[in-house]
């Protein structure tokens, strides 16, 4: 036998026979006459061990040869393919994943062949194959890299204007284009991968492309840097945004959508026929004529040149307007004057005259004059309030409201000076105020610091109510600015840190860029920010600064220190990280921090010393409420504001503590916005009625059922005689009922109430959350509201259409959500949220746009939306891009709870609580009956279905809730849905090929309902609870439980249920008249099939019969199914077994 094994080995070749012949001393090479008996006669037993070594070697060599041939054979059929890229017509190499996987596998296999001791005979072939496969691997990697760079550069160089400005890079890109297109056409003519990718010259040309692409990238960055240094505001734009702006060299009008990113207050420009700029307009519609027109033609296509001119002209024009308004103020009535000039001029000039008039009183030193001036200011204020109450347009109303806010502050300051008998202009009570002076220029002073007004046009925006906290923050920030330090307001969410900083910048007319920091922010993005800051003299406010990674913060400290030192030494230019910048010493950095929240770092010491901190704690809510209500035209503002504050105080003391309840500044602001809107809409209505309506509108939606009576008690105590008319939103409700019919939803009262609350919340807050367990109707509510508004738009009821996009935030990584820097290509890749938000932001239609996040909220992903959800309304990406949020966009969240959300997020959003118990299970059945086969719901059949559910469901749910242990709980409505699904599947299964279906339908319905109830209500119970539930159900069905007898309207119960064993052991068979089939019979009839792998053997038991029947039913009807339980109970096995067999 050993001789046969060794000598008859088919792998032996001539070389092996020669080796064996040399060992034996005579020729062993077989020929036509060689037989086994002849070889045995040669007596080679002693040499067999040596021959065996040769024979084994021959076998191994043959295996290696075959493996090599198999790999070569595989590649004879593999072809490359191309497909269009995204929505373009450009073809690119695609489907590389499977090819790359095979290539990796073959690469490893070839390496192991090369390392084998038996490779010698085929060494040259293996080396040649290894070189080829290695080349293919390198080529594919290089191709993927070049292709990504090519796609990134294509939109840049498809603009002729940019190619004209970068001719060298343009010609290099054309060369890359030729190479890539040549390679793609080679694929279309010879798609075989081994000939395309393994070919000599392909890798070399791709490496050449990579080098050219790197050179082009460098050129593009240098080009952008040059433009940024000329017009520093470009530093606040991302590369892609800049390229979009710079590519519009022929038509300056097309730059308009990007204007707001460079100039906060300017949204449009007015051109004449020669394309000269005559005016600029704010987003509110305020027009400012330029002192001197700007010729865009003279800029010869250089966008940055005419933008630079626009910046200069904006400052000159605003200064001239303020000077003219200042000169005219004493000559005409104040009420006429305020309606004649732009908002910014009105506010600035009236503040200057107030300062001058107080100084005159100090100089005159007459007794009682300060009190007289206080009375004069009161009269002046009442005149403006009367103007607001008259029919003013929205823009004029905003100006007047802003003026009232500041006039009230001026009046209160004068009252304080009079009460404290202040007689001198060097008294701290006067010095600590922000005062404006005209000295051939506007100067602002606070304590001993003087700041030149910056004349940045900021549009017609409201100003903050000035409280003692605001004043303290102003003093700290300005003192720090005066000492060339920076400011750091810190404190809990909703105390006005960012808004106060922005308001101070607005008071001094500085451009203020707000940026929401995140963990993914790197020092390169910060470097770009600081370059812009230092060269254009803007203010920047970094929100949530302590969310930046500690490693990055240390570098940031050095960057800020560089700017501080340059400002202190008063230089004109300085080097910042290798770039020479022109310094504008007006620049200022503010950082805001929420201490002690999740994901926050402590600032390093070298950073702390550069910032003056100011603690922002609870602001004076009553004062803010009073002055805001006053500015909306409410006469008894003081009394009403006390009611708002008292409401929230009592709510926080008496109602339950829930993660989604918030009674802070943002909640009060929401009420103030709502009441302002109502005042504009219904100016004749009672003020208390409007305030009550607003408080209910903002707060009632978020309360749990148990808190609503307590809240109503608080409200009835504070507004005892106020009754609300039910005339609001009649159109919305009547239209919603029509849409409900179309969408097969049930317009029950609680659902309609939530619909109205959601609509009201959408009007008041641009970010809101629908909170509650599943089956509360969150998604249906939003879809219903969207369709209702669309129908109202169609019927011309004054509503806009709705577009919406739903995102599951937990199905994506944070990089996929917001975008990230690709380290290989050194470029930014956009995320899903960024793309959608940008698309909605750039859209020019007035339709409402909703971005819906349907999934759990946690601090990791949602904190990046903080600046979107607060008053900044800007999405800040780590690339440095800041996307503005227009008023027609809403950010909507559908969540189960807010246990993982920080107070910063909760306070920023409106809340609507939807409880599944309010909706109940009945609407589910009513909607289902309308969609099921017609015969099922006809006459008595439909009555039977409703009666069965009405009779069986409440006691079963109650028994499961009180007497059973559920291993998982998806809610009571989910149980009813399970019953419904199993009932539907049972009846549908029995309907096929069953001529007696209609005749025996009542029996089938009752039997199927029993089976559905056992698994629907009792499928999630543990084994002890199952037997208890089984006993209870049998008693219920027999009618043995007092008060729970079958309803009279129900057809007689013709089916009997089996009492032998548990109902879990049976299935109901809908054949002939219908009968119960014991699963033990199914187990007996099933034989164990012979399978070579023991793990795949199915041993039939009662459990396998139960679960396989359910798995089969759910899968064949395409219904979702979840098998749960401890490991080793066969969950995966059932599914695998079903799929395999």
TrEMBL record:
Residues 1-325 form the Dynein heavy chain linker domain. GO terms for cellular component: axoneme; dynein complex; microtubule. Keywords: ATP-binding, Cell projection, Cilium, Coiled coil, Cytoplasm, Cytoskeleton, Dynein, Microtubule, Motor protein, Nucleotide-binding. InterPro entries: AAA_6, DHC, Dynein_2_N, Dynein_AAA1S, Dynein_AAA5_ext, Dynein_heavy_linker, Dynein_linker_3, P-loop_NTPase. SUPFAM superfamilies: P-loop containing nucleoside triphosphate hydrolases (SSF52540). It is found in: Cytoplasm, Cytoskeleton, Cilium axoneme. GO terms for biological process: microtubule-based movement. Residues 453-779 form the Dynein heavy chain hydrolytic ATP-binding dynein motor region domain. GO terms for molecular function: ATP binding; dynein intermediate chain binding; dynein light intermediate chain binding. It holds the Pfam family AAA_6. Residues 948-1078 form the Dynein heavy chain AAA 5 extension domain. PANTHER family: DYNEIN HEAVY CHAIN (PTHR45703), DYNEINS HEAVY CHAIN (PTHR45703:SF1). Belongs to the dynein heavy chain family. This is Dynein heavy chain 12, axonemal. It comes from Schizaphis graminum (Green bug aphid). The gene is Dnah12_0.
């Amino acid at each position: 036998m050993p001789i046969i094994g060794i000598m008859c080995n088919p792998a032996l070749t001539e070389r092996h026979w020669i080796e064996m012949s040399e060992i034996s001393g005579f020729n062993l090479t077989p020929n036509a006459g060689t037989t086994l008996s002849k070889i045995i006669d040669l007596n080679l037993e002693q040499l067999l061990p040596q021959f065996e070594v040769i024979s084994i070697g021959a076998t191994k060599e043959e295996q290696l040869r075959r493996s090599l041939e198999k790999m070569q054979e595989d590649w004879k059929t593999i072809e490359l393919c191309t497909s269009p890229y995204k929505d373009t017509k450009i073809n690119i190499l695609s489907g590389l994943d499977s090819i790359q996987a095979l290539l990796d596998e073959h690469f490893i296999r070839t390496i192991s062949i090369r390392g084998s001791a038996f490779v010698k005979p085929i060494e040259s072939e293996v080396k040649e194959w290894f070189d080829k496969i290695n080349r293919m691997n390198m080529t594919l990697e290089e191709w993927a890299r070049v292709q990504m760079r090519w796609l990134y550069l294509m939109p840049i160089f498809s603009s002729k204007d940019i190619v004209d400005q970068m001719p060298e890079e343009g010609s290099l890109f054309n060369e890359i284009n030729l190479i890539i297109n040549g390679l793609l056409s080679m694929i279309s003519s010879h798609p075989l991968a081994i000939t395309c990718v393994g070919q000599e010259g392909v890798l070399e040309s791709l490496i050449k492309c990579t080098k050219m692409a790197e050179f082009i990238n460098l050129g593009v960055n240098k080009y952008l840097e040059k433009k940024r240094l000329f017009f520093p505001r470009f530093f606040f734009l991302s590369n892609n945004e800049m390229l979009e702006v710079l590519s519009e060299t022929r038509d300056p009008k097309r730059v308009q959508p990007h204007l707001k990113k460079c100039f906060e207050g300017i949204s449009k420009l007015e051109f004449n026929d020669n394309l000269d700029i005559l005016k600029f307009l704010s987003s509110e519609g305020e027009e400012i004529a330029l002192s001197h027109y700007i010729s865009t033609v003279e800029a010869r296509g250089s966008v940055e040149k005419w933008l630079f001119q626009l910046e200069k002209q904006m400052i000159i024009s605003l200064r001239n307007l303020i000077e003219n308004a200042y000169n005219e103020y004493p000559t005409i009535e104040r009420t006429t004057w305020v309606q004649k000039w732009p908002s910014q001029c009105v506010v600035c000039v009236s503040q200057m005259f107030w300062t001058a008039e107080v100084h005159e009183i100090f100089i005159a030193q007459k007794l009682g004059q300060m009190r007289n001036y206080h009375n004069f200011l009161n009269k002046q204020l009442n005149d403006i309030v009367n103007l607001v109450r008259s029919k003013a347009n929205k823009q004029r109303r905003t100006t007047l409201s802003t003026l009232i806010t500041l006039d009230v502050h001026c009046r209160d300051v004068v009252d304080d000076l009079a009460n404290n008998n202040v007689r001198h202009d060097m008294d701290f009570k006067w010095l600590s105020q922000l005062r404006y002076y005209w000295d051939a220029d506007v100067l602002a002073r606070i304590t001993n610091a003087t700041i030149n007004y910056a004349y940045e046009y900021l549009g017609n925006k409201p100003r903050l109510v000035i409280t003692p906290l605001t004043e303290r923050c102003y003093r700290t920030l300005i003192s720090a600015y005066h000492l060339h330090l920076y400011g750091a307001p810190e404190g809990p969410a909703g105390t006005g840190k960012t808004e106060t900083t922005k308001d101070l910048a607005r008071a001094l007319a500085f451009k203020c860029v707000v940026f929401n920091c995140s963990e993914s922010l790197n020092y390169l993005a910060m470097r770009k920010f600081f370059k812009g800051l230092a060269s254009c003299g803007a203010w920047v406010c970094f929100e949530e600064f302590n969310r930046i990674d500690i490693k990055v913060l240390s570098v940031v400290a050095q960057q800020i220190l560089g700017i501080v030192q340059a400002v202190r030494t008063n230089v004109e230019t300085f080097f910042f990280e290798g770039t020479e910048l022109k310094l504008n010493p007006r620049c200022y950095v503010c950082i805001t921090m929420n201490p002690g929240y999740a994901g926050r770092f402590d600032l390093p010491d070298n950073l702390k010393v550069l910032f003056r901190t100011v603690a922002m704690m609870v602001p004076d809510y009553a004062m803010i409420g009073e002055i805001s209500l006053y500015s909306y035209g409410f006469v008894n503002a003081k009394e009403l504001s006390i009611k708002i504050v008292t409401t929230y105080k009592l709510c926080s003391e008496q109602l339950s503590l829930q993660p989604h309840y918030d009674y802070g500044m943002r909640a009060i602001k929401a009420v103030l916005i709502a009441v302002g809107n109502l005042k504009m809409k219904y100016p004749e209505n009672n003020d208390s009625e409007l305030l009550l309506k607003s408080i209910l509108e903002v707060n009632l939606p978020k309360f749990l059922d148990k808190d609503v009576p307590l809240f109503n008690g608080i409200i009835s105590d504070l507004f005892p005689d106020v009754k609300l008319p039910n005339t609001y939103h009649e159109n919305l409700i009547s239209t919603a009922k029509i849409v409900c019919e179309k969408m097969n939803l049930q317009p029950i009262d609680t659902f309609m109430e939530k619909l109205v609350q959601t609509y009201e919340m959408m009007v008041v807050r641009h970010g809101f959350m629908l909170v509650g367990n599943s089956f509360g109707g969150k998604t249906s509510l939003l879809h219903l509201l969207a369709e209702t508004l669309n129908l109202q738009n169609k019927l011309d009821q004054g509503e806009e259409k709705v577009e919406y996009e739903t995102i599951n935030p937990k199905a994506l990584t944070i990089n996929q959500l917001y975008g990230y820097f690709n380290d290989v290509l050194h470029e930014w890749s956009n995320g899903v949220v960024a793309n959608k938000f940008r698309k909605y932001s750039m859209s020019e239609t007035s339709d409402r746009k909703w971005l819906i996040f349907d999934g759990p909220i946690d601090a990791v992903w949602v904190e990046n939306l903080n600046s979107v959800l607060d008053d900044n309304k800007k999405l800040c990406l780590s690339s440095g891009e800041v996307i503005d949020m227009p008023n027609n966009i809403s950010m909507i969240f559908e969540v189960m709870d807010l246990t993982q959300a920080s107070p910063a997020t909760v306070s920023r959003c409106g809340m609507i609580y939807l409880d599944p118990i309010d909706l109940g299970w009945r609407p589910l059945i009513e909607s289902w009956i309308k969609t099921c086969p017609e015969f099922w719901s006809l006459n008595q059949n439909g009555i039977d279905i409703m009666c069965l559910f009405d009779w069986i469901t409440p006691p079963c749910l109650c028994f499961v809730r009180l007497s059973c242990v559920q291993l998982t709980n998806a809610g009571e409505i989910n149980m009813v849905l399970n019953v419904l699904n199993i009932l539907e599947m049972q009846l549908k299964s029995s309907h096929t090929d069953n001529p007696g279906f209609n005749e025996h339908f009542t029996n089938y319905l009752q039997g199927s309902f029993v089976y559905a109830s056992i698994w629907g209500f009792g499928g999630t119970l543990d084994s002890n609870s199952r037997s208890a539930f089984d006993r209870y159900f049998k008693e219920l069905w027999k009618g043995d439980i007092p008060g729970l007898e079958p309803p009279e309207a129900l057809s007689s119960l013709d089916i009997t249920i089996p009492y032998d064993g548990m109902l879990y052991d049976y299935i109901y068979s809908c054949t002939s008249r219908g009968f119960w089939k014991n699963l033990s019979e199914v187990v007996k009839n099933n034989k164990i099939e012979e399978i070579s792998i023991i793990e795949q053997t199915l041993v039939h038991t009662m459990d396998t019969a139960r679960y396989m029947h359910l798995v089969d039913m759910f899968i064949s009807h395409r219904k979702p199914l979840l098998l749960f339980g401890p490991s080793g109970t066969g969950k995966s096995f059932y599914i695998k077994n079903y799929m395999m067999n």
